[in-house]
Amino acid sequence: MTQGVRGTRDFYPDDMRLRNWLFDNFINASLLHGFEEYDAPILEREELYTRKQGEEITQQLYNFQDKGDRKVALRPEMTPSLARMVMARAGGLPMPIKWFSIPQCWRYERTQRGRGREHYQWNVDIWGTTEISADAELISVIVTFFEGVGLTSEDIVIRISSRKVLEEVLGSLDIEGDAFAQTCIIVDKMDKLSSEVIGEQLSKLGHTSEVITTIQSVLGIKDMRGLKKSLKAESLAVSELNSLFDEIDSYGISEWVEFDASIVRGLAYYTGSVFEAHDRKGKFRAICGGGRYDKLISTLGGKDLPATGFGFGDMVIMELLAEKDLVPRLVSGIDDIVISLNPDLRNVAVRVAASLRDSDRTVDLVLEDKKMKWAFKHAERIGAKRLVLIAPNEWSRKKIKVKDLETGEESEISLDDI
Ligand code: HAM
């Protein structure tokens, strides 16, 4: 009975310290860019996720019927909940909205390195503007986070494309709407499946071999010059991507990004820019991903509002940081350990601890009879800064002994001076 559900994690205090450190970096990058935090329930109505385009995410749903026979699901992602919240206050929210959250998400996935059945996913989204500057701002949030944890553009690349690239190519072949979304979902799997399997799946959708060849050659384009040559002169995809790269350039973060037409993303709702961050060596799966989704609300029965955002999981990034030796060694952050060396002095220890806590020091009060030796070992283990000893000798003179564990310095102080 010590094992939890497959693909889920326990967070012991050591793990929790790291998780909080990671989340603090997520929060910091968000706040620096003026985003506000929100949250939503982990349990949603199943229909929020029943999209018909055959996305993996909807096949991996943790869904069940509750005791009132309602069909519910654990959220596999935050975006539909966010869309629901925005819809519920449609008209009442001053636009644009810049919100972030760090929800736990659940997907019945094949567990593997960097992929669990639950993960925490930092979500940063901007609603209410079609401006490409919003997409650039998101890239800046991501770069700020990477810099905060010590990663550089030599470690990371953010690959950017637009759904409009494929849309323009397929639109001229009359492939639109649902068929287009389904095509995107299939070609998103190009790095996981062989080109034969992808070809088979595309032909099952009704694409001819010429169309499949066109799709594959467009997705192979790796620079804007190549893209310009392949699309029409007045291509919206090209002009929007040019503006996006220009905006990113004004942030001074161009070395972090590159155009890559093979970035399509596996979710049906994206309509414009799409991006993913990868480790340059290509050892891990995508670190984060997102893009513009201007038409999600109408699929949920509301009036559309432009939106753009990304999701950033807590698993791949920790693997990468471990590989780069960038995981910090964190200690408990406790200032003082207070111990009485005689059971009769326990009440003094309680008073000392209380007055230290009043002056905002974090205190671990030793609750049992323990010896000095134990206290030193304990202090070392948790990385405390000071040991505060209430010992019979000193206390007979109303003094308390304080040992600074960083300098080794010892002093005696009275209770009033604590
Ligand atoms: P997604 O690409 O499905 O997008 O997930 C975003 C990120 O969440 C991934 O890049 C990865 O870091 C993490 N992730 C996803 N599934 C797992 C898993 N099973 N285990 C560990 N990490 C995982 C979305 O979910 C979109 N809703 C993101 C978004 C927000 N787009 C616009 N706004």
What share of the residues lie within helices? 25-40%
Overall average residue pLDDT:
95
Largest sheet report: 9 strands, mixed
Q: Estimate the global geometry from the Cα principal axes.
A: elongated
User: Stretches where pLDDT falls below 50 for ≥5 residues?
Assistant: none
Which architecture name of the largest domain does CATH use?
2-Layer Sandwich
Structure class: alpha+beta
Question: Roughly what fraction of the amino acids lie in strands?
Answer: 15-25%
Topology:
Elements: H1 13-32, E1 36-37, E2 43-45, H2 56-59, E3 62-65, E4 71-74, H3 79-88, E5 97-101, E6 104-106, E7 118-127, H4 132-148, E8 156-162, H5 163-171, H6 177-187, H7 195-204, H8 209-219, H9 224-230, H10 236-250, E9 257-259, E10 273-279, E11 288-292, H11 296-299, E12 307-313, H12 316-323, E13 336-340, H13 346-358, E14 363-365, H14 372-382, E15 386-390, H15 392-395, E16 399-404, E17 410-414
Parallel strand pairs: 1-5, 8-9, 13-14, 13-15
Antiparallel strand pairs: 2-4, 3-4, 5-7, 6-7, 7-12, 8-10, 10-11, 11-12, 15-16, 16-17
Helix pairs in contact: 1-4, 4-10, 5-8
Bound molecules: histidyl-adenosine monophosphate.
